[in-house]
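User: ABC-type dipeptide/oligopeptide/nickel transport system, ATPase component. Structure?
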Amino acid sequence: MSALSLKNLDVSYGETKVVHGVNLEVAEGESFALVGESGSGKSTILRAIAGLAPEWTGEISVLGKPRSHGVDRSVSRTVQMVFQDPYGSLHPRKTIDAALSEPLAIHGIGNRGERVEAVLAQVGLDQRFRFRFPHQLSGGQRQRVAIARALMLEPKVLLLDEPTSALDVSVQAEILNLLKRLRREQNLTFLMVTHNLPVVSFLCERLAVMRHGRIVEIADVAQLKQGELNEPYSRELLAATAGA
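Assistant: Predicted structure:
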């Protein structure tokens, strides 16, 4: 069964259509990347799956269940999103404990203290961080908290929107290793947006190249590593990364 299935997905902001006829299947346990230049519609697809882009048509299914428009609590238990900017995605006046407890409160889940402690340990943060505020943490620590918050409801799918692009290079490696370990230990499915093709090579099995809101190519990471992408635009992206 597919963890994520998109069929003829169109997404609009007002009268502007930004995603056109996207068809995509992501298998359970797979790590799949959406790559392409800024404005190609990658993050918009994640937002539609998460229920944050209400104006869409087509079909979105999560673990075989079609999702409705807007916020869907059953989908929230299954799919969670990690945003690009960990400082912007965490409330500056809420402690880490409050941020991690909030999803549990919304869904009426008990044992909150124990769950918060367990998830902090999973992402490599000790308990002294629990009652700190986001501004008291480094960028890498904040992103670990953001990942922890996404894990609080024990989802099966994580949507990762440029999860390391706001971090220093050394910290990026730590977060990528953390994500790889969590995926293995919890059998998670990843759908990740990134500009960074080496990140795709490290973390993913397949990728879709997007341009102007459309998928122009789907390839295995082996093709990426060997420089054997088929579409001219895909090869341009690869060349630009190699020359960076």
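The mean pLDDT is 92. The first strand starts at residue 2 and ends at 13.
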